[in-house]
Structures are given as structure tokens and as C-alpha cells.
Amino acid sequence: MSLVTPAEAHRETHAPAGRATRRILCVFPRYVPSFGTFEHAYPLTGGVRAFMPPQGLLVIAAVLPKAWEVRFIDENMDPASPRDFAWADAVFVSGMHIQRRQMEDIRARAHAAGKVVALGGPSVSACPELYPDFDYLHIGELGDATDALVEHLARDVSRPPAQIVLTTKHRRDLAEFPAPAYELAKIDRYFLGSIQFSSGCPYTCEFCDIPGLYGRVARLKTAAQIIAELDKLVACGVNGSVYFVDDNFVANRRALRDLLPHLIDWQKRNGYAVSLSCEATLNIARSPEILELMRQAAFDTIFCGIETPEPEALKAIDKAHNVALPILEAVRAINRHGMEVVSGIILGFDTDTRESGALILDFLEQSKIPMATINLLQALPRTPLWDRLQQENRLRQEDAERESNVSFKLPYDEVLAMWRTCMDKAYRPEALFARYEHQMRETRPYRLKRPNSRQRLSPRNIHKALVILSKLLWKVGVRGDYRRAFWSFVLPRLMRGQIEPILSVGLVAHHLIMFARDACSGKSDASHYSAKALTLEFQAPLPRGR
After folding, report:
1. What SMART domains has UniProt attached to this entry (predicted)?
2. With the CA atoms of 241, 246, 247 and 249 taken in that order, what torsion angle do they form, in degrees rounded to the nearest 10?
């Protein structure tokens, strides 16, 4: 449980004159265990308990009046307790569609304790009609609706007789955002740190809700803000890697070119103790000057939504910018700047054939991309895909046994079987470690050589590395059932004293192998947004301490 800290000194607004101070409990709901959140790696780390800190609630915590007391609890680590709800005057909740049932569970517990509950974030902003039982709905981004919510709660924290909906009409400029209240969170218990530079994306991919929620013109923070937030993450004990959660890191290339020299200078001052990663469109490969600056700033990974290796399918989903360069050429251009590509792949497009699964596996073999998040297509509200499928009567929202709400052109069982085959073959240990061996030969030699700085070789980092190494060697190298593939990768590097790739590859590979096995056995889901996934996860909560 995160107690009140000196964070109050960093909050920038004041309660309306003459109003009482308030106690605000910010609760972030659990995620459904998924391919991209690395749950299987946590037991090997000696302390990590969640993926990365949520930006939204921590920004809201930072803008609340200075005199108000704030607690933040991430239920991916521990549930909010009855004592937390008893302490609070009001409860704030935020989340995505995948967390809908968990958000409702938090609301029910808060209401049982007699507390007023406000809900914000991307899910309610897209679909406020799904949340009739919350007392306050905050629709849209930080702005005048946030100010109005503070005013309401400053006057009265009793539950209103009817739901109050507050909609942002004038959103706050990102350059005026405070640093998220990282000090309220257990930053050292997250797998990654998180930071945001921009919001919005200029592209209109058919299945994506980002333009509908945040617009097509990228809005930006200043370089000074980013540097201050990185300093704060380091001070709070971030675990060596920070992810830029921007919808598209390269949405404004000029602004990114201006930011990167500041990141390079920051890395030099901080001994390159932190590696960086981001999400960007694949056409970033057409900007070698940006890639070179990112290499110098110690970016190690770029998540690219490749979606499908089939060019005609990309054109059909309004993602032709993925073929501005041939896809394999674009991947290799990124690799030649020392950065691994993590690929988003989707099955279930209208253009898919019975050969699409084999084409995906062939693409992974050719590209040597180690990690591809393979999902079934899901239609999200406020997307062109949703609108089209609704007109075609192809939305299957009512069927909680399906992994997707889309009525595919191919038979559903065939698409699901194709997904399981892809997961099985792509993440067999021998195949996965072979792709990582390729990365060690063809990508990592281009990576910026990091100095043996006091920050990187701090006692904390050395202890953490020894804990992870010992757990990997014992749980995977001795007791694991894929130890032969593991040792073929690890032993030559162990003999040469190359510990970092053993740790980074070992942790990620273990999660990918274990999750893929769950997928093939039916224990995990083919879409992060499926109604089935929501139902199963709600009935079987993630164990505490995992």
C-alpha cells in the first residue's frame, strides 16, 4: 500500500478557497495476464510484481490540490484493502476496455464502503454508456472536466443522486502536464518504467482507436519535461529500462529530432544506467538520422505494428505506410542501428486465407524477429473497423465464449487453430533462441557500447543481476524442461562473461515460451480484448505476489 509521501509538495493546484481537504484513493485495476506483460518473468526477478506504472492515474494524482492527501494502489501488485477504502473520501479509477470488469469490481467495493467513485481513462471516454453505476464519469483528457471534478469533490464527497458526466471541452496542453506522481508508486517493483512524450497519431489504421480518442495531430511535451521525468523515475528506483508509451513515437519527426539530443546528453550524465524503448510505425526505417540518434540515446527496442506480412492486406486496413519500404528491409534497417523489432501481428483480417498462418511463420523466420505479439482481430469502439462491421452485421458482442467479437470471413475455429499453430511453432524454445542468436550476431554489435559507469555498476544493480542470474540458472538451466535450448544460448556467453544478454534474453524468452504453452493448451486467450478473456480472468484472480 502506498502511503502519503512528500509528493503533495509536487502537486500544483490548490483546492478552491474555503473548501475542505480531501483524501483521494487512486486505484488501478488488474490486467488480464497477457503475452506482452511478462508475468512469467516476474518470479525470476526477485521483486518485480507488475509490468509498468500507469501514466493516467499518476498524472491525475499529480494535479490534485496540494492540500489533498493521495494514495495510489496498483491492484496488479496488491488489492486495495477495506482500510484503504475507509480512509478515502473519494475513489478514482481509470483503465482500458480489457480492465472493465476489474473497474466494476473496484467500484462495487468502494460503494460497499459508502464512498463516491469517479471513473476516467480511455475505456469510459470511448464508451461511457458501459459504466452507468459510477458516480462521476470523466470523459476525455486532462482539462476543464478535471477542474470541474475537483470543484465538485471540494464541495461535497457524498454520492450524488444521479450520475454526473463531466466532458473535457478544453484539454490541457501536454507541455503544461506535471510529472506523474511516480513517488506514490512502487516504481522498483515494475518490470519497466513508463514515460510519455506525445499523444495522438496521424494514421488511420482501420482497427485502431487512437485517432478517435486522441486525435491525428501529435501533441507534445517539452524536452525539459521529459528529462525531469526521467530524473524522477531514476530517483524512484526504476528497474533499468523505460518505455515511451506514445501512440506513435515518430508521429512528429521534427519534434523527435529535437528531443533526442537531450536524451543523449541525459544518458551521458547518468552513465547510461537506463535503456529506452518505444512504439513507432515501421516507416521510421526511412529516417536513418532519427535511428542513429536513437541508437546514441540507448534505445534498444522498437515495437512496430507490422500486423501482417501481406502487402494487400495492409492496404485493405489503411496501413499502406508499412510498405513504404519492403517490410524485411525496414526491419533490417532498424536492426542495423542496434535495435530489436518487436512486432504486432494480427490474424482474422478479411483478406486472410488458410495460408496466412504459414506466411506469418515464414515472415518470422526470414525477419528473425524474436518477439511477435500474435492476436486475433478485435473490433474496438470508435474505430473504422467497428463502424464497418456494425453496418455489415458482423459484430459478435453477445458471445462470451468467443475469443473475438469479429465474425471472420474464414470459419472461426480455423482462425483460432491457425493462431494456436503460430504460437506453438514460433515459440518452441529452439526456434526462439535461434532468432535471438541471430539478433546477437546481426543487431547487438550495432548497439551503442555502454560505459562501465558507477550508475550501471551500482551495488543495487549488481545485486539484482546476481539474483536474476541465479534464478535463471536454477529454475530454467537446472529444473526447466527446455534447458538444452537455454544452455546452447547461455553457456558460450557465460564463459565469456557476457551476463547482460543472458539476463535480458533469458527473462523475456522464459515468459514467451511459458505463455505460448498456455496459449496452445487453451489456458490463455487469443485476443487481449475478448469477452471470454474478461470473464475467465475475473473468475480466476491473479495470485498476490506474482
Report:
1. Elp3 (SM00729)
2. -90
